[in-house]
Every structure is written in structure tokens, then in C-alpha cells.
Design brief:
This protein is α+β, with helices and mostly antiparallel strands and about 375 residues long. It contains twelve helices and 21 strands. The strands form five sheets. The chain has a seven-stranded antiparallel β-sheet. It starts with a strand and ends with a helix.
């Protein structure tokens, strides 16, 4: 288990006060993700025209932020900064060394990874033991393959990843069902902020009084953020569907302390089953989602990727067919009409669809103009 966090921002798009707040948020996030790994800490800082700066240390992040050494990082949160990627490591494969700390630079790709590559030994053997750390193979394929899907087809494992490839103004984010990832777009400052889990991000934003809704990223959706497209209304993110590999028992962890499949969750073994939609949901697991009945087809469905209207549920397929909606929704899921993010469970209100987070938002309760929100306030 590792921690990732960071941001992408429009260069020179923040006031001095906003930039100061962003530095504080970054420090808070780095300190909090230390609980996910203290073997090493790493930060990558990018600007449009300068060379990337990658800082790595074996000091735990919670200790690092209180040391004089942290001033080297603080000074790089500058007006012209475009992207910041932070990582705290809990070592699984590879020795605890500065070289094995994230972020990794592989060719034109710089990235951070939370997760485990289960076919690491096979990759290690077939690639001449190129990398000591399993995560580095992931970014090797991202760098080498023209298409992201081709890179991910080489990997069996779980991951939440942040990376740049060639462009120093475009941040890429992705996770599959085994790892969490949270996002928030601070519109006034034109900054996209991300973190391993929702609680870290909510805590930092609340502490520094930043008004931005935190969302959990949709599984198997590649989010691409171009900082030159950010505005005070929207991040104008591009989203595309990917297919994460089915985990087979060949690469399962039967009993360990790492990740979602370890002893903390019963130490059960994965079998040859498609876990791409809800990894961890086995009859022996505490992670099984509730089963509900679709009002239209009366089939049993898991309470994810469903539409809720009061106490009634409709599966995505029926909702699309009944209302002549875009068939792409069946592949990508519903976008919230308030924030524009994908939602596992969407709540229908008349002809609009909202994620659960936005339904609890004060802005919704204040009955803002929905048409304006739909057009202008998208993540």
C-alpha cells in the first residue's frame, strides 16, 4: 500500500493567496498519505518550459514536512508550476533505496503508482530483470506503447496511477477497482487536486476553506487534464474507458499484508472470475455490495451502476432503454449533471441525474439554476 497525491494547475492562474493555500494543501496531503507508507517519499514538479524536478528521500513524509529539507519542495510550488505528483512508498518489491522511490522517470514518462503488479516475476523474467520495482514496469509499458490500453494489457495487478507522458501540461489519472482515487476541481484557482482517498482530500480542503466538491474517480476511466484548458467554470477533462485485466488465481495473493486482498480482508484467494467491475466482492469478503432489484426487468443487480429514484432502483441498461439515452452510458456510466463526474450510484431528480455527493451539496439545497450548473460547473 502506497499513497499518491498532487495537483495540476494553470500556470500563473492563481492569486498569491491561492498559491499560498495550494502549498498548504499539498503539505497537508503529503503528511496524511504518509500513513500509507513511510519507506520513502517522492515529489515531482513540472513547469511548461523547465526541466522536471524529482525529489526523493528515505524520510517518511510526516517527518519530512516538519524538516528544513522540505523547503526545497515548497520553493517549487511556484506560479509557473503546471503539475505536482507526490508519493509515499510502502515497499513490496525492491529494496528500500532512493532509486526505488517514486516518482519514476522512464523515457518521456514520469509516474507514481499505488498498488501491486501481480505478474511482476513474469515481467522480470521476460524483460531481462530490467527493473527492481514492479511499479516501474507499468510506466515502462506506458512509455513504450502508443496506446494506453496496449500498455495496460501487459499488466495483471491493481493500481491507482498518476503520470505525464511527453507533455508537461497534461496530467493523467486512472484507477481500477482495487485502489481508491479522489478528485476535486478548485474552479476559482483553476487547480485540479487528487489524493489516494476521499478523506485526505476533504480534510485538506476543509482545513484551508477551499470550496470544491470531492469526488471518487470512476473505475477504469482514464482522466486526462490539460492545464491550458482549465477555466473558472470547468477543467474540461477528457475521459476514456479502459479495460483492466481480469485477475486470475495465477497472480493472486493468498495471504499477506498488502493491498485489498491481504489478511486484513480475510486472506481469501481470487479465482478465475471477472473482478473488473467490483474487485473484492466474493462471498467470503466483507466488501460485498448490497443486491437490489431493478424496477423494470426485476433482475438482481449490485447497488453500483444503478439509478435510484426514491426507494426504487433501475439498472443502467433499463434506464438507457426506457428513456432513449445515449448507449455509451452503458459502457461509461452516468455523469452527474451537477459536477460532471461519473457516479456509481446516481440519483434521478426529474430529468436530471446527480451523484450522491452533489445531492448532499449546499449548492443543490439552495436550489441553484440547474441548467446553469449543468453547463458551467463540470469537473
Amino acid at each position: 500500500m502506497c499513497g499518491i497525491a498532487g495537483y495540476a494547475k494553470t500556470p500563473y492562474g492563481q492569486t498569491k493567496s491561492q498559491l499560498k493555500t495550494l502549498r498548504k494543501i499539498s503539505k497537508s496531503l503529503l503528511s496524511d498519505i504518509a500513513e500509507r507508507g513511510r519507506d520513502s517519499t517522492g515529489v515531482a514538479m513540472l513547469t511548461r518550459d523547465g526541466e522536471p524536478i524529482v525529489f526523493k528521500t528515505l524520510t517518511g513524509a510526516d517527518r519530512l514536512v516538519s524538516s528544513s529539507e522540505y523547503s526545497k519542495i515548497v520553493n517549487e510550488h511556484r506560479a509557473d508550476t503546471t503539475i505536482c505528483m507526490m508519493h509515499t512508498r510502502f515497499a513490496t518489491e525492491g529494496d528500500v533505496t532512493v532509486a526505488n522511490a517514486h516518482p519514476f522517470v522512464v523515457g518521456n514518462t514520469i509516474g507514481t503508482h499505488n498498488g501491486i503488479i501481480y505478474n511482476y516475476k513474469d515481467l522480470h523474467k521476460s524483460n531481462g530483470e530490467m527493473y527492481e520495482v514492479d511499479s516501474k514496469y507499468l510506466f515502462h509499458f506506458v512509455n513504450e506503447r502508443e496506446k494506453l490500453q496496449d500498455a495496460l494489457d501487459e499488466i495483471y495487478g491493481d493500481y491507482a496511477i498518476a503520470w505525464i507522458k511527453e507533455s508537461k501540461t497534461e496530467l493523467n489519472l486512472l484507477h481500477e477497482g482495487g485502489r481508491d482515487l479522489a478528485l476535486a476541481y478548485w474552479r476559482e484557482a483553476r487547480v485540479l487536486i487528487y489524493a489516494s482517498t476521499k478523506k485526505y482530500l476533504e480534510k485538506a480542503l476543509k482545513k484551508y476553506r477551499v470550496d470544491a466538491v470531492v469526488h471518487e474517480a470512476k473505475n477504469d476511466i482514464h482522466y486526462a487534464y490539460d492545464v491550458d484548458k482549465f477555466s473558472t467554470q470547468s477543467s474540461h477533462s477528457e475521459k476514456s474507458k479502459i479495460n483492466s485485466n481480469i485477475l486470475s488465481s495465477k497472480y493472486a495473493l493468498e495471504s499477506n499484508n498488502y493491498g485489498r486482498y491481504g489478511t486484513n480482508y480475510g486472506g481469501y484467494q481470487l479465482h478465475d472470475y471477472d473482478y473488473s467491475d467490483y474487485l473484492g466482492a466474493s462471498k467470503d469478503s466483507d466488501l460485498v455490495w448490497d443486491v437490489v432489484y431493478c424496477e423494470s426487468c426485476n433482475d438482481e443487480v449490485y447497488a453500483v451502476d444503478v439509478v435510484k429514484d426514491g426507494d426504487k432502483y433501475t439498472c443502467v441498461d433499463c434506464e438507457v432503454a426506457n428513456n432513449n439515452l445515449d448507449p455509451k452510458i452503458q459502457d461509461y456510466g452516468f455523469e452527474c449533471n451537477f459536477c460532471g463526474d461519473y457516479a456509481d450510484t446516481v440519483i434521478r431528480d426529474a430529468e436530471y441525474y446527480f451523484c450522491e455527493t452533489c445531492m448532499d451539496s449546499p449548492l443543490i439545497r439552495e436550489e441553484v439554476n440547474i441548467d446553469h450548473v449543468y453547463d458551467q460547473a463540470r469537473l
